[in-house]
Amino acid sequence: MSVRDTADIIATRFMRGMYWALIGIILSVLFGLELPRLLAGRRFYHSVGAQVVVLVVLVGVVVWVAVWIWRGRLVGWWRWPLLGVLAAVSVIGTVTLTPGERLGNPHWSYEAIGWVVLLLVLDRGVGWFLALLTAHYGVVFALVAAGGQAGETPAGAVNVVMITTAFQVAIAVFASLLRRVSSSVAHTALEQERLRTADEVADQLHADRMDRYAALSDTAAPLLSGLASGALDPGDKSVRRACAVEAVRMRRLLCEGAVVPDPLLHELQACISLAERNGAMVHLSERGERPPVPAGARRRLTEAAVAVLATATGAVRLTMVGTDNAVVLSVVAEAPQHEVPVVDGDGVTTSVMRSGDRLWVEAAWQGMP
Q1: φ, ψ for residue 17 (rounded to 5)?
Q2: pTM
Q3: Which pLDDT band, with edges at 50, 70 and 90, does 161 fall under?
Q4: Membrane spanning segments where (predicted)?
Q5: Average pLDDT of 38-47?
Q6: Cα(62)–Cα(253) distance, integer angstroms
């Protein structure tokens, strides 16, 4: 997930709280301040019903936004037709009022509509709100001027507008700052997550390396020490066989850290390629769907097969059979007489049989049912 996507998610969560707070403010203004003004100024309206319709429309828009916020979504493209509706009811609220009372106390709608406009463009920034609010007041003042009279002096009207607008702009600015803070929070959270992930990956890689080193220290380290000190003769067949086994085992261990769909098959193929370089002809057969095998169990499961592949001189038949929670790995090969490790543990059992020059090894892993 990108920083922008994360910032949008965090901003949406913060903005939902802002929306609910603003919805509460608007409903309080409409029913606590504007409704009493509407009722008190009934005699100044050409049509009381039109004024009631204006109030109902404003409440309806607020409720519509509240439903979307409750569903977990913010105001979308439909804000634009709703702004058109607000422009229409603004005109209705002004022209159905006696010209001499326009901008006066009975003219409640021109102040209230600004709050609903703010609700619709809260996530668009201060610039959008100021532009729409200016257009709204421009239309209202033009209608008042056309009527030739007003219930308030220009200075008084401007004073009322400035006081109301100051509160609305403060909320718009806070919402804009909130989105910037959410972006900063997202950057910080993602950076912390990246550092935690890097630390965990580094720790896991270090643990894997130490595990591989421990796996080789009991076998490869003494062999290398013996060759370096001269205690072991490189010309001895048993020493060469031991070196071949360790070479294949190292190849398998190096493949354990690879990110592949089937780690078991990947490790076996690495061992097979080394055996084929030494002259063996390996035929691999797979049956069934294999469950994922843990790294430690894979190491035990392939240990006997590694010893056979390292020393096989002719044809080798390698078979893997998978079931819902088990894997059976068997090897039939012409291999010299030597000790094949019988490894048991981590759910793995191994059996070895010999018939003449042919060696049959089977290792089975049983997972949790």
Answers
A1: -65, -40
A2: 0.53
A3: confident
A4: 20-40, 52-71, 77-100, 112-145, 157-178
A5: 90
A6: 65
The domain spanning residue 344 has which CATH number? Answer: 3.30.565.10
Q: Are 361 and 308 in contact (CB under 8 A)?
A: yes
Domain match, 129 and 257 both: no
Q: Average of pLDDT values for 239-245?
A: 69
- The values of phi and psi at residue 61, to 5°, are -65, -40
- Domain count along the chain: 2
Q: pLDDT: is 25 or 280 the higher one?
A: 25
Whether 235 and 358 share a structural domain: yes
Phi/psi of residue 219, each to 5°?
A: -120, -55
The parent domain of residue 315 ranges over 222-366
pLDDT at 83 over 90: yes
Q: Which of 135, 167, 190 is the last residue of a domain?
A: 190
